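quick q for whoever's on today - can somebody do inverse folding on this one?? i tried earlier but teh output was garbage lol. tokens:
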């Protein structure tokens, strides 16, 4: 039956209910506004400082750099750095620079400080090449200092990372160059030892060339022991080639002499035998030199090719290093430096006041309808007729005495005075806060 009565009520009936119990909505609303004003004034003030950094990839203009200099991707560096900057080491560096751990007596306090910094520092990508770093804290000066220090860490870490990559590449390539220079030096010794072996097949230890080769071999091995790996290109290629060319030229002359010379008949056979013997010796020596040259070339070509590739990579790494350090490399431009915040970002007084107002209204409306649901009295003859199964003959109005009227007026006066006083206080506080904010 109650539900039928509620369904039959019109919107005007609900307005009558609200006006009849208006104090249940006025008082919570005023209290809610007062709570909002007090919260806006007594909640801790939070200040925010931020900076914007533009990261520009260097444009390689010099044609000599094209195809050589390789700059690291900005996006990949930023994603990595965003995690690094909120890591333990970076925050520890920040705390040390600014002396933020003065009140941290225990390790637990220090870890809580690091956790608070990690949650308060925000590193965001505003665009593909713009980074926003912000910090929110209770101290405006400290907020600005933290953002400035974080910015310094951000830029220095990025630059040092790029330089470190190039330096590591250069150091690695230099180490590999040393290894292959040593191999080339050892190949030089192998060439000379092969030549010595071939010479000893038809010469004695007293032969000047043998003595000279042994001296060169000893000197080369001594240089290897001392770490001097400079290679004598003539020894590897030029010496044997020149000697081989001389032998071929000498052999050609001997053949011409053997076929065209008009020798004395008595000595012709003897001279031909000598020339033939000399020619065979030259041919044998030439074949040995050709074999030695072939072995040397095969041995050194591989090392020489790798050595040349390493030299090219070394030059590429050096150009990249110079590129990163010059204006042609990645540049960091601070578009909006960190400034001292003059006004707190939290609490927002207007927002807090509105929240208190709407909370008071909501509580008041809930109280009105709760009281209405708990009040089972009839408000009129129509409600009585709808609810009762017996005929309603008439209604007797409430008998109000003079004392009842006096008490009602006094109660209304107290409530009105209290409401006006509370509203005046709230209004004064709002005006004062507005003037202070302006």
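ok took a stab at it. sequence:
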């Amino acid at each position: 039956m109650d539900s039928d009565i509620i369904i039959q009520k019109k919107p005007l009936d609900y307005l009558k209910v609200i006006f009849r119990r208006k104090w249940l909505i006025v008082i919570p609303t005023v209290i809610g506004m007062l709570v909002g004003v007090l919260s806006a004034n007594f909640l801790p003030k939070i200040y925010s400082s931020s900076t914007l950094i533009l990261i520009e990839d260097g444009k390689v203009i010099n044609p000599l750099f094209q195809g050589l200099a390789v700059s690291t991707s900005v996006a990949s560096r930023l994603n990595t750095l965003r995690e690094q900057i909120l890591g333990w080491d970076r925050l520890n560096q920040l705390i040390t620079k600014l002396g933020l751990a003065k009140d941290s007596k225990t390790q637990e306090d220090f870890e809580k400080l690091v956790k608070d910094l990690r949650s308060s520092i925000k590193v965001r990508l505003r665009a593909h090449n713009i980074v926003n770093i912000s910090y929110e804290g209770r101290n405006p000066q400290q907020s600005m200092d933290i953002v400035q220090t974080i910015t310094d860490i951000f830029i220095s870490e990025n630059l040092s990372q790029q330089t470190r990559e190039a330096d590591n590449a250069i150091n690695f390539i230099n180490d590999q160059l040393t290894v292959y220079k040593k191999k080339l030096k050892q190949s030089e010794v192998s060439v000379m030892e092969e030549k010595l072996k071939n010479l000893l097949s038809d010469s004695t230890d007293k032969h000047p060339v043998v003595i000279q080769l042994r001296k060169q071999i000893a000197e080369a091995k001594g240089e290897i022991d001392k770490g001097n790996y400079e290679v004598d290109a003539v020894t590897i290629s030029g010496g044997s080639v020149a000697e081989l060319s001389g032998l071929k030229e000498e052999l050609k002359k001997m053949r011409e002499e053997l076929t065209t010379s008009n020798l004395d008949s008595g000595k012709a056979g003897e001279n031909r035998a000598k020339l033939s013997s000399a020619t065979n010796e030259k041919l044998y020596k030439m074949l040995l030199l050709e074999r030695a040259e072939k072995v040397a070339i095969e041995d050194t070509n591989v090392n020489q090719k790798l050595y040349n590739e390493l030299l090219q990579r070394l030059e590429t790494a050096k150009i990249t290093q110079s590129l990163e350090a010059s204006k042609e490399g990645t540049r960091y431009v601070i578009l909006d430096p960190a400034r001292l915040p003059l006004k707190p970002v939290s609490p927002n007084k207007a927002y807090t006041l509105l929240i208190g107002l709407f909370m008071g209204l909501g509580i008041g409306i809930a109280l009105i309808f709760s009281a209405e649901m708990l009040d089972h009295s009839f408000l009129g003859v129509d409600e009585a007729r709808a609810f009762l199964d017996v005929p309603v003959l008439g209604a007797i109005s409430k008998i109000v005495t003079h004392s009842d009227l006096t008490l009602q007026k006094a109660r209304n006066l107290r409530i009105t005075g209290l409401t006006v006083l509370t509203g005046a206080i709230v209004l004064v506080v709002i005006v004062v806060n507005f003037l202070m904010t302006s």
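fwiw The longest strand covers residues 47-56. also Residues 1-7, 60-69, 233-240, 261-268 have pLDDT under 50 and may be disordered. so keep that in mind when u check it
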